[in-house]
Amino acid sequence: xxxxxxxxxxxxxxxxxxxxxxxxxxxxxxxxxxxxxxxxxxxxxxxxxxxxxxxxxxxxxxxxxxxxxxxxxxxxxxxxxxxxxxxxxxxxxxxxxxxxxxxxxxxxxxxxxxxxx
Length: 117
Hints:
Helices cover 26% and strands 31% of the residues.
């Protein structure tokens, strides 16, 4: 989905599509949604400019961006890998991912690329 044509309902549909495989794997509990860099900024812009309707609730808080019940938090794009001794990408820079909080290792769903150039 390109930046220009991306709308709030597209974001909600993508978030729902990411959530379904986690449910299918049995991770129906608490899930944290994380957005990296550009994606968080695009979602923030959509939320900030939205004219909320009864269809999709949108809210920006100090916790993150809430789109239709999905709380999206900003995630740093890299972490220091102690074995490789260098910074590694957490996920593709233009993606959103969900992490099951009820799984000790933090099972990560398939994620989705929401922005394409």
